[in-house]
Amino acid sequence: MEVYFLKERFRDLIDIAKADHDIIQDRTIYEGVYVFMENNRDMGNLSERDYETYMELFEQMMSVVKFPDLMIYLHASVPHLVSNIQKRGRDYEQSIQLEYLQNLNKRYDEFIFHKYQGRVITVEKDDLDFLNTPRDLAGIIDKIDATLFGLF
Q: CA–CA separation, 71 vs 51, rounded Å?
């Protein structure tokens, strides 16, 4: 399954590279590798040999693509994530273990702050409601513009 996701995200990167317009991507190949794949390995869902083979494949793929212009990391605390899960009310999400969310949050932080080599901005999401509060969205857009274009 993880190899399938890797292939699909790589295909997305190839399509993005060919595009003649800007594209915003919701989930990247990088988090699939550094967050979810590593989590699966550590949970015992694949062998070290399979993990190493997967990582070699990922490294080969990365040799032909470039980093995004900017990665935006929407950071949320675990209590905020739990609240969002409860608000959405999706049955399949309701049984997600707190430990699993804590693990993912830790892996995202490790990925963003220690492994990712491209440009990134972090948005602390707990105190923002950018879907319903125009001022919150404008603040994020200003931060993006400042990073990409040196504005403000």
A: 25
Q: What is the pLDDT of residue 93?
A: 87
- Taking the C-alpha atoms of residue 81 and residue 11, their distance in angstroms, rounded to an integer, is 29
pTM of the model: 0.84
Give pLDDT, residue 119.
94
Q: Is domain 70-152 classified as CATH 3.40.50.300?
A: yes
DSSP-derived secondary structure letter, 129: -
Q: What angle do CA 129, 109, 72 make, to 5 degrees?
A: 50
* Regions of the chain with pLDDT less than 50: none
14-43 burial, b at 16+ Cβ within 10 Å, e below that, comes to eebeeeeeeeeeeebbbbbbbbebbebbee
Predicted pLDDT of residue 94? 86
* Cβ-contact 3, 56 below 8 angstroms: no
Cα–Cα nearest to 37, from 7, 17, 63: 7
58 CA to centre of own chain: 16
Q: Residue 60 CA to chain centroid, in angstroms? A: 20
In contact, 73 and 112? CB cutoff 8 Å: yes
Annotated catalytic residues are 26
The pLDDT score that the predictor gives to residue 152 is 57
